[in-house]
Amino acid sequence: MTAERTRLTVALRELRARTGLSLAALSERTAYSKSSWERYLNGKSLPPRQAVQDLCRVANEPGGRLLALWEIAESDWSGRAAVPAPAADEPRPPRPQEPPRPLETRRPRGRGGRLMVVLASAYTVIVGGVALVLVLPPDREAPEDEPLSASAPFSLAPQCHGTACEGRDPMRLICGISPESLTTYRTATGARVELRYSEKCGASWARTWGTRIGDRVEVTAGGPTHDVRVEDRTDTETYVFTEMTAAHPGSTVRACFMPASADGERECVEARVGGTTTTPRPPSPP
Prior knowledge:
Strand content: 15-25%
Number of strands: 11
Oligomer: single chain
Largest sheet: 5 strands, antiparallel
Shape: globular
Helix content: 10-25%
Radius of gyration: 21 Å
Distance between the termini: 46 Å
């Protein structure tokens, strides 16, 4: 499986895990069978574009990020991304020996750049001059669903914890795999703000979507404050996220949304890690 397909597969699996749906339940909510979803989520076949859209709909997720990844994977799979052959009247140069293709990485778009990164299921790590490939194990399912392929020998682990995560990118540090959603808040402008928490990383962050250019969100858990600004149209079509702030069970995490419009009001929401209480300020519009 190519790096392009790998990134799409991991993104689909992370999104499906957030829904909490079994393959059977997912098939009931979409036009695709349980066996089809098993193939898509394990990278055995490329899903149709509509399947990606349906999963985003079921998960209440903006489709921009996943559809962009699908376009890249589909282009690679179909051969449209290949270099065109020379014209018939042009001499064909000898084909050079190609070096092994490295796994491609993409810069996440957090504070320094906001395009949502997908955690690839294969990472290359250099240890003592030797390249080791770490492979994410296949998607796990409930017992009532058909079995999936065997587990891979390695799994990915978060790269920071607690204060070591402070001010760092949750996707790059592998904290964005199946995080807990503490609360989701709808602002007066219609934008959504979600507080997320990774127990494995001991850190929280905020993300927002349905925004306008110039909107800004900040997050804190009683320590440093980290923020992100919606810079361009691409940001408005997907979601942007802040850097992480250290948090632990019992911590109160607070996110504030500042609209771009001069007459817009600052709106804040709080959630306690391990609790259910949220405190919107001002109250969420109906």
